[in-house]
Structure formats: C-alpha cells, structure tokens
C-alpha cells in the first residue's frame, strides 16, 4: 500500500507544525553536534585528568569554544539574484558553519578562529526546482557549488577549495528537503528527500513499522544524501554494510539536467546508473531524492561480549564468523586499548561485541552457533551470554552497552581533545584476510613510531567496524599529547605515515569516510588510470563548467 497524495500532504503539514512548535537545538558552527550536548564540564575535567595521567603530562588547559563575534569573515564576493535571494543567507554563523566539516583538522582551525576561505553564500533550497535554479545561477556566473548534507565530513569534503581562482562559492544546504514522500509497503521501500537527517528519517518511518537501519557514527547530524554521496558505512557489521545495499533508485540534479534511475530490485542492463552517483561526493550532481530499501523494525535481539587474550586469534574468530553465513548484525572486534577507552574492557583483554536481531524470528540459534565458534577459537564467553531479549535494553547494557555509548559520544570527544591541545586522528580501511596479519603489524608499527617521533607519547588502538567473508575493515584511532600551534603539523605527519603503509599494502585509503580533499593524494594512487579518465569524462558531460565541488575525487 502506498501513501496517498492526501496523506502525504497531511504528513507534511503536521511535520512543519512540529518543527515550529518547539525550539530546535542549535548546531555548533565550529564543531560536532549541538550546543550543550556532549560531556558536561565535570566530565570534561575528568577526561583531561585521565589523559594527563596516561601520558604523564600536566593536566592541559581547555581552549574556549569560539563565539561567532570572534570570527572574521571576508565580505561575500557575490550576491544572489532577486529570484534566489529568499533561499540564500550571508549570515556570519551560516557562512562559518559551512566553511569546514568536522574532522580534527577542521576543529583545530575553528578553535584558532581561522576562517580565511568561507563560502560567500549559503543556500537552503526548499524544492528540487530551487536546486535547479541555484545550479543555473552558478553556471551563469561561474561559481563553485558545494552540495552540503549534514556537514559531518571528516575528509575535507564540504569546504571551499583553497584554489578556486577567485570564483565565488555557494554552499547548497539540502537540510530543508527532509521528508519521506512516499512509502511502498508491499515492496518495503520509500521515496525520501536527500536532506533528511538520520533521527528525523527514523521518526518518519517508525509509525509504519519500518526502518532504514543505517546508523553511521555521524547518524545524529548526517543526511541520507550525504550517506549516498560518500558511500557511508552503517549499522550492519556484515551483509548490508554500506548504504549502496539500500539504494533502489536515485534522482540527481546536474548542471545539464535531471538524472533519474528506474526503480528495480535488480537489473543486468549495463552499468548501474545509481553506482555512478553513489560515492560521487557531489562532483557530478546534487542528489535530491532516493528510493530506499527498508527493513521491518527488529523486535528480538541477542547480544554478547566475548574476550580474547590474543588479538590475531580474535581476528581469526571474526573471519570464521564472517565466513559462516550467520551474518551477525554486530560483529565488532575491539583491541585491548580500544576496549579500555570505550569502557568495554579492562585494558588487558580484546573484546568481540556480537549481536543478532530480527523482526521475524528468534535469533537464539544463530547466536548459539556464533558463540560456539568463539569458544572453538579460545574466546571466553560469559555465563548466560546471548540470551534473546524482546526490547532494546540488550544493546544498552554491559560491555555491549558501554561500547555503544562510547561509539555515539566519540565525535563530541574529538572536539574536547582538540580543545585540550591533544592530537587525534582516526583512519579506516579494508584488506583481505590473507594480508591482514602483516598489514596490521606494519600499520601499528608505522603509526606508533610516528606518534612517538612527533608527540613523544600516545596511544594507537584498532577495532573492526565491518566484516566480510574475504576480509575485515579495521579502524585505527590515535590520541597523543600535542603542541599548541603545531597540532596540525603533528596530525599531518602521523596521517601521512599511516596512509603510506595502507596504500603500500594494497588496502583501501578509505572504507567509509570518503575521499574528500584529505585523502586525494593516496586515492589518486589507488584509483585505476582508466577509471580516472572515465570519471573525468562523466564530470565533463554532466558538469561541463566544473562548478560542482572541484578538487574532490579528481582534479
């Protein structure tokens, strides 16, 4: 059954009413998330003291968050035409908030009150026709247009290019295109506007008993269009790992016209048009709508945490699970440092966070077999682990719950770490099982060596975010003492050391964070030359004046 046009209109009215009825939380213009969210002042002090004790340094002072009246922005170099002016803003907080993404590098520059290259104008289109009009204006005036979803990029994917040649820059914020427009219950799919953020999307699907079930770490402040444009990795640790798996069809506005793919469960009719835009990072067009495959909301859950004394033995366990055909929803391996940092372990054992969920059947048999595999590989399984629950509490208790909460809070902590003058970096990749032991050894060795050389001390940890039958997706985190004024140089040296090893081992420079500008030097080496030429030809055909996000993915 589809929603009727009348029902859709009612839904739109009620949503608009709720939006204006209460005050929405205000986004930080300089860092992650919402003003007032994240750790309290008392918690921040405890974190500072814990970091000082770990690295044997004095408790660092915290750089205060910037105020917008402290930020100096150059005057806008362009003004929108009268027909587009109601969609556009040159408000300082809007311009500052669209200058950077949310990486460590972005936050450090924001804390330094350095905003030398803001967008000239921020546009908030309310319809696809508005997007068309904005791109037409950019084409006529030779302006740079940067599609902007939730602004959660950690790879320099939404900031204006440093070498724009004096061209004006328009940031196109899709945040007002935030509706579920149509639901096909029989096919379990929905037509959704690209600007909707994760929580609002789930709120609109919940009354229908449906969910996209795509929960990246950025879920709170990232959008459907952003997930598609960056090939986001989400909730499912196996099987449905990327947003790709949920895209049924796309509608994209390009400078040369609208491209819409056909809704199909599958097709062998040539190269997939959807695949051309999934992961295109805004260089080919602006995604305005997508038909997405949905899931029934899970009712039954089983979770467990299993400990191991040896990380590579634990990784072998994960390989066995990944190749078993059980397809656990959660299968995330945390090394001892990662487990301790998240509160899921004691700093000695490595922890496997394991989970199954279903809307249809009791996952007990699947969990029982998974725990049997863990025991076969010397995993320590607590008594009573893996019991099925008919509520969400199983995901919020014990080591599993500690990891989940730390996972959601981590982006807020990145802001604090930058404020404390520390250095922080995360990098994620994927490699095959046969190469993983040597790969992991060399990545850890190179990164730890760079941390000691650059910072004198520090911690490097690893976890698996996603698992495939042919390999894992390891995610590495770095926290180290920084030198104020040199944090970005320290960060860049550590990132380069890790990235060089990743590429040298034939792994990917990014599994789900995207390429942006930060990963371009290594992506250029990973990408086949023939594909680079084909991508450049596609851009020339769809964006002949090169207005869309120049410098991302290709030159």
Write up what this structure looks like.
By secondary structure, the protein is of the alpha+beta class. Among the domains are: 181-296, Uridine Diphospho-n-acetylenolpyruvylglucosamine Reductase, domain 3 (2-Layer Sandwich), CATH 3.30.465; 300-504, FAD-linked oxidase, cap domain/gating helix (Vanillyl-alcohol Oxidase, Chain A, domain 3). Helices cover 35% and strands 18% of the residues. It contains 16 helices and 18 strands. The strands form 5 sheets. The chain has a 5-stranded antiparallel sheet with strand order 5-6-10-8-9. A 4-stranded mixed sheet has the order 1-2-4-3, covered by helices on one side. A hairpin with a 2-residue loop joins strand 17 and strand 18. Helix 4 (104-111) packs across helix 12. It is globular. The two termini are 46 Å apart. 49% of the residues are buried. Mean pLDDT is 93; it is low at 1-22.
Rounded mean pLDDT is 93
Task: State the helicity in percent bands.
Answer: 25-40%
Would you report the number of β strands? 18
In CATH's first tier, which class of the domain at 300-504 applies?
A: Alpha Beta
